[in-house]
Amino acid sequence: MASEASGIASASVAALKSVRSVFRVGGAARKYRKVKELGDPHLVHAESLARLNESREHANWAAAEAFVALDAYGKQDGEGRLELIGEAVDAAWEAMGEARHAAETLQRAERDVEKLNTVQGYAKKKQLTKIGKETVGGALGESTKAAAGVVTAVAAGTAGLASNPVGWGLAGAGAGLVLGVTLYKALRAATKRYEEVRRPEVWAPQGETPAEAASRSESLKHALKFWKKVSKGERQAMAREIYALAAGPHIPGSGGTTQEMRQSGMALLIALKAGPADHKLDEDAWVASLDDPAKTEAWIKEIAEQLASG
């Protein structure tokens, strides 16, 4: 009776965990599909980059023409010459400023396209990793354990089947799958904790002075603190990049982001289930929250959680 009850309980718990993993796989698959549907940033933003390059060329031509006019006024004689030269200098200075601004805008947009391409690739990779982990350790491993529990319960309730090698075999297989994934997660987390303190400059926020690197022994001790989550790793760095692309002009470092690029950053947030509907906000309130410096840390934390592969 005890064996039968144990088998039923084991099967029930494992079945629930298996169902949970199936839902998680489905959620990760949907995220992956939605991120993929955003398209290649190089192709999506090809037209806007072409427009910015055309604006830069026009600004350069305007600056060149302004300097030609300045040179021409400099060679003239007569009354009003100095006034004309002064106006030409002002025009040339303004044209140079516009040319410089156009060049900087284009360069910033090109860098942002590369960042967007990187973070989209990272987001897809993390969701594929989650699908793999949940499929092997959750859906497959737990369902195998559930089957083992059922076999054990049936065997225990049948006269003469005190020993059940089939049930034990299934349980061992399921436990092996779950244990393998668990060990993989533990080793990955330990490695990230080690790098977090051993090489803090790698994923330090831009403009922030990284902490002093810990010694090898101190880093190993930190790596073994399994109860601590990584606070400064690759996932957090990618979350900062995504937030910087989607954030409003009042957020430091995001003022130069083009509107097209900001829209792409917001679309990525929506694909990662961090959009206005997920926050139960209308679009205007959601956009305003992205432009609120007081909510920066909360946004980065949420994006990092949505990127997690589990």
Mean pLDDT, to the nearest integer, reads 75
Q: What series of H and E elements makes up the topology?
A: HHHHHHHHHH
Determine the fraction of residues in helical runs and give it as a percent range.
over 70%
Strand count, sense and barrel status of the largest sheet are: none
Topology:
Elements: H1 2-37, H2 41-44, H3 46-74, H4 81-156, H5 165-198, H6 216-223, H7 234-246, H8 259-271, H9 283-290, H10 296-307
Helix pairs in contact: 1-4, 3-4, 4-5, 4-7, 4-8, 5-6, 7-8, 7-10
Report on this structure:
Helix 4 (81-156) packs across helix 7 (234-246). The chain contains 10 helices and no strands. The longest helix is centred in the middle third of the chain and has 76 residues, at 81-156. The protein has 310 residues and is mainly α. Residues 1-11 and 144-164 have low confidence and may be disordered.
Which tags fit this structure?
elongated, 310 residues, 75% helix, mainly alpha
Quick overview:
The protein contains ten helices and no strands. By secondary structure, it is mainly α.
